[in-house]
Write a structure and sequence with these properties.
2 domains, 241 residues, 7 helices, 22% strand, globular
Length: 241
């Protein structure tokens, strides 16, 4: 399931696993287990992960191996533990709410995809537009576009509110635009959000940048889905102050 940085790669089954509406698009093509939404294709990823050397997986993904043989991975400011034998992924550093959020429901499968896909290449932090990563991007735009309008609408006059929300999710402020932050959705998947606030002449504008090596660690559709999940989570988050 290795990715090719020059091509659109649909190993992440976006057609069968659509964020925001897991119950509606294709009934019966996914199931809920412990609050998470799992596509029927998840078994392929579990089988591949179980066949890989766990120390090598940790080295490639930026995870760590626990004493019980599970893989611990940091996503934003959360720690998740992956037990390949039991086919279980749980968050370890905050309690799961009775009604999990969209992020809670879908990030476990993305973690699984990332662990199988991540490679040993370092992160150069050469940040580019997502469309610059893939040949044939326009052909698949409906599946691969990242959403910017929610952030622009919610934070159009509130740069400090954006930074507060970013910090709540482990984002680090960077120097760009009127307000900007860098997030690590996964250790080898940094994403920059650069926000220009609205004024009398111009509407708010958001630019999202990803590392040029991102396709070494995730397929094109997994990149789009995970960024869109982060965007919606930012819109739902309010920091103090």
């Amino acid at each position: 399931m290795a990715t090719d940085p020059t091509k659109i790669n649909l190993c992440y089954p976006c057609g069968f696993f659509r964020p925001g509406d897991p119950d509606d698009p294709i009934a019966g093509e996914h199931e809920r287990i412990d609050g998470a939404v799992w596509p029927k294709t998840a078994g392929l990823f579990w089988d591949e992960l179980r066949g890989l050397n766990r120390e090598a997986v940790c080295a490639s993904s930026g995870g760590t191996l626990t004493e019980n043989g599970s893989i611990r991975l940091t996503c934003l400011n959360e720690d998740w533990e992956v037990d390949a034998e039991e086919k279980r992924i749980v968050r370890t550093n905050r309690e799961t709410t009775p009604a999990p959020s969209e992020w809670d429901q879908q990030i476990p499968f993305l973690i699984l995809v990332y662990l199988v896909s991540a490679r040993s290449e370092a992160v150069p932090y050469d940040m580019v537009l997502p469309r610059d990563l893939f040949k044939g991007f326009d052909l698949f735009r409906s599946s691969l576009d990242v959403s910017i309008h929610g952030i622009e609408n919610v934070f159009k006059h509130d740069g400090q509110g954006f930074l507060n929300a970013a910090r709540c999710l482990g984002g680090e402020p960077i120097q760009a635009g009127d307000a900007a932050a860098r997030f690590h959705i996964f250790p080898k998947f940094p994403v920059d959000y650069i926000l220009w606030l609205a004024d009398e002449e111009f509407s708010a504008s958001l630019t999202i940048l990803v590392d040029r090596n991102a396709p070494r660690h995730l397929s094109a559709d997994a990149i789009a889905v995970s960024v869109n999940l982060l965007s919606r989570r930012l819109c739902e988050t309010r920091g103090p102050g």
